[in-house]
Design a protein that fits this description.
Layout: H1 25-32, H2 39-47, H3 53-66, H4 70-78, H5 88-112, H6 119-130, E1 137-143, E2 149-157, H7 167-176, E3 181-187, H8 197-211, E4 216-224, E5 227-230
């Protein structure tokens, strides 16, 4: 009769694999890919500092609801708003760093590629840059002869519902940057991206002024919340 097997020598069954929906967000990211995480999951991974990211996720979901999504949350971070101790100063610093890294990555992409061949990248960049602004901001992307980004500038800042834009100043900046083309952009804090009659007249005036110097206006993009309206896509340029 064989001797009994000691408990220490007994064959242990393999550990039962965790189901994806029971994993911590960080573990799920590594196991199933970043695309499987929602916004609250990603924020909890970014801001987790030794605490349970599952518990932190609940706080992040509440924060996203309070600020109406990522755009509002990043806008609050940029404005220095720190509404909860759950995030804290270090958490806001991480949010700002993440936001800026994404913005710089999109800008770098525009510096390397023809803007006409990457309208999606242009839309993403402008939306990220303008969607959280509480007042109207008029921005210009100055491009080289290959439609690659030279520099992006906030040229004018206005009130909640209007911005005074002077074509002479836009022309001056374009000459200073030796730009061959530009993409115009501004935001509508109202949340409605449709152009007003004043937006259409301004586009015509700037196009005419810049054309005299052989500087092309490739598009005028209006950003409202997470959406944007493109004059070029609508055949208005």
């Amino acid at each position: 009769m064989p001797p009994p097997v000691a408990a220490a020598d007994a064959v242990q069954p393999p550990p039962r694999p965790q189901r994806p929906w029971t994993m911590q967000p960080r573990d799920r990211l590594l196991a199933t890919g970043v695309h499987t995480l929602d916004d609250a999951d990603l924020l909890s991974v970014l801001l987790s500092d030794g605490q349970s990211s599952r518990d932190l996720r609940v706080g992040m979901a509440c924060l996203l609801t309070r600020f109406d999504g990522l755009g509002g949350l990043f806008g609050a971070a940029r404005a220095g708003v720190m509404p909860t101790d759950a995030v804290g100063q270090e958490g806001w610093a991480r949010l700002l760093a993440a936001h800026e890294l994404v913005r710089r990555g999109l800008a770098e992409d525009l510096r390397q590629r023809d803007a006409l061949t990457s309208p999606q990248a242009v839309g993403h960049y402008l939306t990220l840059n303008l969607q959280h602004r509480r007042n109207e901001v008029f921005c210009v992307l100055f491009l080289d002869s290959h439609n690659r980004l030279l520099v992006a500038e906030d040229v004018f800042q206005g009130t909640l519902n209007q911005t005074a834009v002077y074509p002479r100043e836009v022309v001056r900046r374009a000459i200073e940057h030796n730009a061959a083309a530009v993409i115009l952009a501004h935001n509508h804090p109202s949340g409605i991206p449709d152009p007003s009659p004043a937006d259409r007249l301004l586009t015509e005036a700037l196009t005419s002024a810049l054309k005299c110097l052989d500087i092309r206006v490739l598009d005028h993009v209006i950003v409202a919340g997470g959406r944007h309206y493109s004059f070029a896509e609508q055949g208005l340029i």
